[in-house]
Amino acid sequence: MTASLAKRLAELETMDTAALKVEWRRLFRSQPPALSHDLLKRAIGHRYQEIALAASARPPLASCAP
């Protein structure tokens, strides 16, 4: 886990429900579903991990050249 991912996941623990809903809108570009505080936090954390792991799994641009 990268340091920035760990930091973002730790920040989730301090967010209230309103802040989680704002973060949901930023990440998913949609209105947050009617989920509990805990489930919002888990879903956002999962999305953070998806983004971080997808970025690290991409091959370097130089290796994509024919």
What is the structure about, briefly put?
71% of the residues lie in helices and 0% in strands.
Encode the helix/strand succession as letters: HHHH
Q: Structural class per helix/strand content?
A: mainly alpha
Number of domains: 1
**Beta-strand content:** under 5%
State the distance separating the first and last CA atoms: 32 Å
SS field, number of helical segments: 4
Sheet with most strands? none
Name the shape in a single word: globular
Rg is 15 Å
Structure description:
- The protein has helices spanning 3-12, 17-28, 37-57, 61-64.
- The N and C termini lie far apart (32 Å).
- It has 66 residues and is mostly helical.
- It is built from four helices and no strands.
- The model has no long low-confidence stretch (mean pLDDT 88).
- 71% of the residues lie in helices and 0% in strands.
Kindly list the characteristics that best describe this protein.
single chain, 66 residues, mainly alpha, 4 helices, 71% helix, 0% strand
